[in-house]
Amino acid sequence: MFVSVTRLRLRSLLFLPQFFNLSSGSIQQAAASPGFRGGATLFDRKFTFWTITMWDGERDMKSYRGAGAHAQAMPKLAVWCSEAVVSHWNQDSAELPSWPDAHRHLMASPRWSTVRHPGKYHGQVAIREPDLAAWRNTPMPSPKLLAMP
Length: 149
Prior knowledge:
36% helix, 5 helices, alpha+beta, 6 strands, Alpha-Beta Plaits, globular
């Protein structure tokens, strides 16, 4: 399985409505995409948002990333975010990794995105662990649920 974790921090509350609108579309797009096996979002402190998605392979994730709502959102993140980092890895397990696991992978192999207004922590080695309060963690729709009539 190919896993992708993303951590984004919005630099202003003003971007929140547009971010939620595009995020909602991206989540629905992922759930309907070929090769999608599961995912979750986490709304963290200080306008910080995490996503974790699992795919049959990297090609499936890249097809999703380059199309639809996700492709529309990506250019906006350079303006909206003060921090943006992603990490990818392969795993044998078909179980979605935990948030602490995702954090460990992000710390071990971060790929920082370019942002126009970087915050003081953008590009730093220390990435704050996510707040795991139950209400913050939302599973993405299952591909099986979307296929039901």
